[in-house]
Structures are given as C-alpha cells and as structure tokens.
Amino acid sequence: MKILGKFLIAILFLLLFAFITLWILAKNIKPETIKQLVSKQITTLTHKKSQINGDIFWQVFPRPGLKFSQIQIGDEQTKENYSLSINSMLLNLQITPLLKGDFVFSEINVDGLKVHINQDTPQSSQSQTAPVQNKQETASHQFAIQSLSVNHGQIVINKNGRATVFKNIQVGIEQFNTQKTPFPVQIKARLTEAAPFSIAKASINFKGRLSLAPSFINELQSGIEHSSVEGQLSIQNILINQFAINKLNTTLKTHKSGLSFNPFTLSLYGGESIGDMDYRIASQQFSLNQTATNLDGKQLMTALVGHEAISGNLDYSIHATIPLNKPGFESISGKGAITLKDGEIYHINLNQMISNIKEQLDNLMKGDPSKLPKKLSLSGWDKLGSGNTPFKLANIQYQIHNELITSESMLLQTDKLQVNGEGTINLSTRELNGKLKASLNSNSTDSSMQKIQKALGGYFPFDVSGTLDQPTVLPDLKMINPLLSQLLIKTTLEHPLKHIEGTLKELVR
Q1: Is the residue at 74 inside a domain?
Q2: Residues 6 or more apart whose Cβ sits within 8 Å of residue 272
Q3: What is the mean pLDDT of residues 479-486?
C-alpha cells in the first residue's frame, strides 16, 4: 500500500508541476503576442491579409491549447479569388516542446468555417504578396499539424453571378501535410444550391486519401492541378429540379489531366445505371458514358418533361461531353439510345387517328358526287385523336448537338401498327418537330384500311409539332391531300363522274 501511495503522490506531483508550468506560460505570454504570431503564420501560408477580431483563451485540459474566435482571412467584399472566415479555432500544442518554452501546434479544430470562392476573379501572383518569414520566430513557433477537423462548415462558389452552396461540412484529416505525402481524409457535406438549377439538393460523403502540393493553399487552381486524390465518393438523395437520383457511387481518382470516376453507378427510378465519367481540368469538360436498365419510364420521363407523357420499362445509353465553362445546352454533344417496353404514350391515340382518316373519307361520300371535296380538313382532329397509344416496343436512336436532340431512327410497335419516323427536340425552347409513318401490321385483316394505306403510298403519314409541354400529333394532310386529289383525277379520267362515289365507297369498305 505504501508503494501505491508513493506512486499516486508522484503522479499528482507531476500533474501539478505540468499545470503550474502551463499556468506560468499562459500568464507570461501576452495574448497579443500569440494573436500576431498566428495571424502572421496564416498570412504566410495563404498569402492573404488575415486578422483575429475575437478573443484568445488558453486551454489546459484535456490538452493544452489556444482557442481563437472571429478569424478573417482575405476580404470577401474585394472579390478576391477566395476568402475564409472562422467562428472559432482551437490549436492544440505538443506538451514536451511547450515545457521548453516552444510552441509546436499539432492539431487544429475549426468550428464555423465559411469559404467564399470567386471563380470570376483571375489568379494573382503569390510572389508579390508573400511576406518574408522570420527565421528566429519559426524556430520557436512551429505548425507541425498532424490532424485537422472542421465542423459546421460552408462553401459558397460564385461564378457568372450564380452560386453553388455546400453546408453542414464536416472534415476529418490525419497526418496532414502539403508535401504530396498521402494522408487519410473524410468529408461530409450537404449540397443546398447549384447554379443554374432552381432546386439542387444532395448529401455527400467521401472517404479516401489526399496528396496536397505545396502550392495548394496560396494558389487554389494550381494547387488542385498538382495535387492528387483517391477514394470512395457516395452521394445520396440527389434532387436536381424534378429529377431525382437515390444514390451515386463511384471511385474517384486523379490523373495527369483531371479526375476519373470509374465505376460511376447511379440508382434511380427503380433501376440502375452503370458506366464511367471523366473530368478534364484544362478544358473544364466532363465526358460521360452510361448504360441503364429496367427503369420506371413513367416516373423518369415525368421528371424530365414535367408531366405524364409515356410509360414502360426503360433502358437507355448515353455518351456525352458536357463543358462546365459554357452554360446552356449549345455546347453539349453526344449520342445514345432509349428503349421502352410494354408501355403507353399518353394523350395521343394513333389507332383512333387512322380510324378517323377512314371516317373522313367516308364522310366525303355523303354529299353530291359532283361537288366532292378534294381535300381533308384538320378541324377537330385534336379532339378526335384523344386517348392513349399502348405499345409493345419503342426505340429511339439520338444525337445531341447545337441545342438539338435529333433522331433519324424512331420505331414504335403496337398490336395494330408499326411506326417509323424522325424528329428533333430543341432543348432550349422545348419545341418538337417530326414526321411519322404508320403502317398496318402484316397480320391486319382490315381490308378497307389496307386499301387506304396503299392509296396513301403504303403508310399513314403524321406530323409532330408543338412542345414537350403540349405535343401535337396530326395527320400530315400536306401529304394526304395531294394523293387524294391524284386519286380523284385518275378516277375521273377512267370512269364517268357518276362512278366516283362508288369508287371511294369501295375504297373505305
């Protein structure tokens, strides 16, 4: 018991000695001296004017350290390339050097970090702003950071008058350095705004290893280009306007010219999309390759178009390049395919429209044959063709260029029809323009409809117009009426006028 008692007394004595030593150091070192030291060190690292506007406190337990409040680095109002503000920062000190009178800061804990990045401001030269560091001061006051933690962070990236905002940022770093030696890092954040979208939300989680170049802090763009990263990136609950993605998983890795995301997997609308993505820093351009299967076509197309337009099990492929430095759709280029099975086209009834063509021809026979009209009219067709078109298969091969989605190969198969066509969609104005050729399936038993189809050149022509919000599909009377006139002229030359009525009635039976 005596030995244990002596041991406890020795421990208490050492703790008391350490406490008294730290207390003496705290009393003898003026807060203003520490404030100048830290401010000068921050300026040396960032090459930006920095100041500590708040108070400085000594912390003894659980580890000795200095706590600062209201730190400002750079000036947001002057539109610098970046600026930072910190609500509070704790610098933990290594005990052994501290007992010798030296300050060696080994850990940084930051709470309430706000970073403003202005991408419209050109990078300035560091050599003109870098202060000369005092060698004697460096010997007794060192920043040998081993770990860094950030809580309640926020990053605002401004470009072209628009902002992208990340909130609730949490960062954990061990073995931090700017000598390109890899160190572990974990980042969590929440995206709340992303220009130019009206709605942008996502939860972000990254875990991997990071290597920072010495130029990273003072020249952000150059530092990124000479640094490297590798790890697992997971983004959940993504919402871009009405478009939702349940989860994004990818392995992120840097290469000589940019970043690679491979594999790049999306879980969305009941299915999965697999592929890869690459980002080139010099051109600020993404290259995307994706193949998706078994998606809910109704939900996906409703999110893209803004209303219920089509349903079915959807597969797609896309190969596209997307430049970030050129807003809008005019610079996006790519190609791919979309396939839907066992679905419906809403608010368009092709079967009914073909039946209406037959009825229109039949109605022409009810008047005086000598006064027989030589053309059909579009009046009332929008109401006559209301309803849906069920289909077995729909396939579109498309290209994207100069704001246009263009397809020269569209196919639609239903129980009664096979439809081929071509068309364009203007991504900026959402305007539609296309031509369709509908023909009866070979197993059709409707002889009168087959005769009409033959008379019209072997198919029923339709014209697609309007917008994605209000699409319109109508018979292409510019093609139908000339064929009808030719038929009437031919009949008039071959038979007396009194037989015209009988000929057309035979046609529609």
Answers
A1: no
A2: 265, 266, 292, 293, 294
A3: 72
pTM above 0.85, yes or no: no
In angstroms and rounded to an integer, the radius of gyration of the C-alpha atoms of the chain is 36
Tokens of 373: 């009209």
Residue carrying structure tokens 């090459």: 47
Element (H, E) at 185: strand 183-193
- For residue 21, what is the DSSP state? H
Residue 63 lies in a domain: no
pLDDT at 136: 42
Cβ–Cβ under 8 Å, residues 420 and 460: no
Cβ proximity of 288 and 322 under 8 Å: yes
Please report the sign of the dihedral spanned by the C-alpha atoms of residue 62, residue 63, residue 67, residue 73: negative
The parent domain of residue 347 ranges over 341-508
Q: How far is CA 147 from CA 16, 144, 181, 228, in A?
A: 28, 9, 14, 19
Q: Is pLDDT larger for residue 168 or for residue 63?
A: 168
Question: 131: cis peptide before it, omega within 30°?
Answer: no
H or E segment and range at residue 376: none
Cβ contacts of residue 331 below 8 Å, gap of 6+?
322, 323
Predicted pLDDT of residue 105: 67
Residues 414 and 351: their CA atoms lie apart, in Å, by 9
Which of 135-144, 423-432, 462-471 is least confident?
A: 135-144
Task: Give me the number of domains the chain comprises.
Answer: 1
Residue 303 main-chain phi, psi, to 5 deg: -65, -40
In a domain, 26, yes or no: no
Angle at 59 between CA 56 and CA 63, to 5 degrees: 140
Residue at token pair 């280009």? 225
Q: Per the domain annotation, does 481 fall within a domain?
A: yes
